Amino acid sequence: MTTPLRDRIARLFAALAMTSMITASAIALPRAALAEDSQFDKMRTRIAAFVGDKMQKLGGSRIVYKVDTDGLRESVVTDLRDDVYKILREGKIAFSGLAIRDGGVEAKIADAKGRDELKRKLAAAAEGLPSHALAVTDAGDGLIRLAPTDAASAARLRELVEDSVAMIEQRLKDADITLASVQPDGTDRSIRIFIPGMMEPEHVTAIFATKVKVSFRMVDISMSAEQAQSGTPPAGTEVLLGFKDKRPYLVAKDSAIDGDDISYAGPGFASGTKDPIASFRFNGRGTRRFAHVTEENIGKPFAIVLDGKVISAPVIREPITGGSGQISGNFTLEEASSVAMLLRAGALPGHLALVGQQVVQPAAKP
């Protein structure tokens, strides 16, 4: 899911202030969306011009990353295979030969009703998500082939670039680097970073080499977190603070599920209260793990942890077998968007390759 325009423009204004379905058809963007992107591009151009001027006067660091399109394509197809397996098993649809082949997923389903059921459920899961659009080919004799459309692959790549830019901006902010320009280059899917006054680019690249750690951990209720904080916590546990409420939580050190199994995350609103939330969806492997954990721990709280901070600690009321969930925590919409971005960004460094880094001397063009 792409970052909302309002959030992206808000980040750019902040930077200025600190510096002073199943279908094989093409997906067309609405005119309104194109107009918004044009507005955003103009704002980004202003930032680039300002930072470029500072680079000429102060010198600084120039860093270039490139998105690993092959790795992205592989992960997308792997997730698709896991989703197909989950649908076939849950629907008790007889199949054979499920495999990844030539950039797509193949399976042999002798029953025509079974093939239609698979298509219907995949279409329902992809509704409203153009980046998940699939081309479905019936090769005859029960063999069905599914692959992301070219438009869907391009959409997923755009999402990855936008998420990468947002994560880089957030990491720079967290490192107190407030004067910087992060520019996507659509010609070769590169991301160019300019940091005036910073003459040691390796210090910056070290920031991005660390993955955002997303984990789902059980909460230990054998003693209060306050008691554990002032004394000795039980073996295999640790005390972490809340992301927003700053209160202590006693949680297991080991993760029941890791963020690598999250296939989608985005901001939204709770159906009853309309409060901002971050929703997420697991891939097939994560869905199976999450179902097992929730089945075994009904009535117990579990913590959703981002980079050592507890975002939320809900109580498991019933087994969660659908592979999706919501995170609430008295968020503003901007905070919900940030949490969703962090959930998506857990595996980002694995999709970014460092192309080059250099020191730009004063009076030289960046």
Give the helix/strand layout.
Blueprint: H1 5-19, H2 31-58, E1 60-67, H3 69-90, E2 96-101, E3 104-108, H4 112-126, E4 134-140, E5 143-148, H5 150-174, E6 181-185, E7 190-196, H6 201-208, E8 214-218, H7 225-230, E9 237-242, E10 248-252, E11 257-258, E12 262-269, E13 276-282, H8 284-296, E14 302-306, E15 309-312, E16 324-327, H9 333-344, E17 352-360
Parallel strand pairs: 9-15
Antiparallel strand pairs: 1-7, 1-17, 2-3, 3-5, 4-5, 6-7, 8-11, 8-14, 9-10, 12-13, 13-16, 14-15
Description:
It is a single chain. The chain is α+β, with helices and mostly antiparallel strands. 39% of the residues lie in helices and 27% in strands. It contains nine helices and 17 strands. It has helices at residues 5-19, 31-58, 69-90, 112-126, 150-174, 201-208, 225-230, 284-296, 333-344, and strands at residues 60-67, 96-101, 104-108, 134-140, 143-148, 181-185, 190-196, 214-218, 237-242, 248-252, 257-258, 262-269, 276-282, 302-306, 309-312, 324-327, 352-360. It has a six-stranded mixed beta sheet with strand order 10-9-15-14-8-11. Strands 6-7-1-17 form a four-stranded antiparallel beta sheet. The protein has a four-stranded antiparallel beta sheet with strand order 2-3-5-4. Strand 12 and strand 13 (276-282) form a beta hairpin. Helix 1 (5-19) runs parallel beside helix 2. It is flat, with a radius of gyration of 23 Å. The relative contact order is 0.16.
